[in-house]
Each structure stands twice: as structure tokens, then as C-alpha cells.
Amino acid sequence: MDSQVVANRYIQLQRALFNEQQSLKEQFLPHIKKMFGDNPLNREVPVLMQLPRPIPIELYRASLQAVSHIISDNEPHIKQDIYKLISELSDQQADQWIKAAIKYEMTYFHNLAKKQHVSDWLPHFLAEQAFRPFAQGIAHLHASIMTEFNVMGTCPCCGEPPRLGKVTRDQKTSLACPRCETQWYKQRLACVHCGDDKEENTFHLTIKEDESVHIEICSTCNNYLKLIDRSSYPETMSASLLDLQTIHLDFAAQEEGFGDDNY
Ligand SMILES: [Zn+2]
Ligand SMILES: [Zn+2]
């Protein structure tokens, strides 16, 4: 399969969004620091689920404005729909957007799309992209303690199921979260999804045209993990972009019937 299945335009949009999110993240860091204070954190629950104070609505609105601007510039045909969604957003609704984005409440966003007569994917995309600077900021602030967390294999910062791993030359795998950019290490031989650690239950799908990537599949839970050779991609490339650049692996795995509805 062609590894350039994702339109260049979409990659460009994601790159622009990521750059903006990084600058918003820097801007929000002092506020995020204040939100957490010195509260002790439970190492068995993702950091994001332990937010001691809500994300300030005015900051979320600023983020929403900034990402809306970028999306409208890149996709002018949905400018009106974006405007329709955010122009009359009340504080209460903005707060609901944040909560629904954190909890991945897709039903909420699907209903909103129906009610506002906009594309089904748009409300969640907007809410999630505006939320990412906060997720990335929270990850940044807690980067040094991420290895102390054990949250059933999910991202220790945001709870996202793992889907992307980078393999080093000595066969160590670091997992990278495309949502909050957290990196953490995979336990050797254990399936990241169900924890099965029997080697015979793991097999690999390779892609003929690309030797730098493969898919690790668990026959116990039928789920998969995309694995890339760390040296084949620039160290500075964000996990969100890597995830997008390797989307052909998701298509290959899903075509074979692997993965679940979260993918
Ligand atoms: Zn994450
Ligand atoms: Zn498994």
C-alpha cells in the first residue's frame, strides 16, 4: 500500500495545528502548573483524570479560537460550520466540550453535529484539537514521573490506548502518545492492550514496501501496535505526525480485522 495515503494537505493542517498547540502549551504552562499545585498523584490513574481544578474556560476559548483559525484557513469550505459551532458557545457548553473531549464521549459530539447540521467529525475534532495544548502541557510538567505510573498499559498522562511504539537498536520499545506527546516504556513481551505476556501469542505483520515499520498483533485480544524503527524517522518528529505518517499501517491492520473501535 502507498505510504502516502494521507493527503499532503491533511498533513500540512496537522503540522500547522501542532505548531500552534506547542506555542499555546508554552503560554498555558504557568496556569497548568497552578492547576496542579503540589497535589499528590495516584500512580495508577492517568494524570489527566486527576485534574484537581478545571481547565480555565477563557484559556480553552483562546485555544479554540486559534485552532479554528488554522482549520478555517486550511479548509475554507468548513469555515461557516466552525463559526456556527463556536460563535455562540456558552461557558457551560465550553466546559462540556472539555469534559467530553477528555472522556472521549463520541455520542455527545455526534449529537451536537446532528443538532447543528455540521459534518459528523467536526465538533469532536475542534474540541479535541483545542484541548491538546493542555494535554501536552500536563504531559510536559509531569514528564519526569511518567515512568512511575502503571495505568493498565494506557498513556500514563491522558489514558489514550497505545498505538505507536518506537523500537531502538537494542530492541527496547518506547511508546509515544499522539495526543499528549508523552513517551513511556513498554514492558518487555507484554501486550500493551491486554497484558498477555506469552510470546507465542504475539505475531508481526510486515509491510512489503517499508522495512522501517511493522505491526505487532496480539492473538489474545486481537489488538495491535504500530512499531517503527526509531532511526528511520527524525528524533524531533512529533508523535501526532508519526501517527499520521504511518496511518497506512492502521489500514493494513484493520483490513486484516485487527484493532477495536477506538482506532
Ligand atoms: Zn497521552
Ligand atoms: Zn493483547
From TrEMBL:
<dbReference type="GO" id="GO:0005829">
    <property type="term" value="C:cytosol"/>
</dbReference>
<dbReference type="Pfam" id="PF24860">
    <property type="entry name" value="FdhE_C"/>
</dbReference>
<dbReference type="InterPro" id="IPR056796">
    <property type="entry name" value="FdhE_C"/>
</dbReference>
<protein>
    <submittedName>
        <fullName>Formate dehydrogenase accessory protein FdhE</fullName>
    </submittedName>
</protein>
<feature type="domain" description="FdhE C-terminal">
    <location>
        <begin position="190"/>
        <end position="259"/>
    </location>
</feature>
<dbReference type="InterPro" id="IPR006452">
    <property type="entry name" value="Formate_DH_accessory"/>
</dbReference>
<dbReference type="GO" id="GO:0008199">
    <property type="term" value="F:ferric iron binding"/>
</dbReference>
<dbReference type="GO" id="GO:0051604">
    <property type="term" value="P:protein maturation"/>
</dbReference>
<dbReference type="InterPro" id="IPR024064">
    <property type="entry name" value="FdhE-like_sf"/>
</dbReference>
<keyword id="KW-0963">Cytoplasm</keyword>
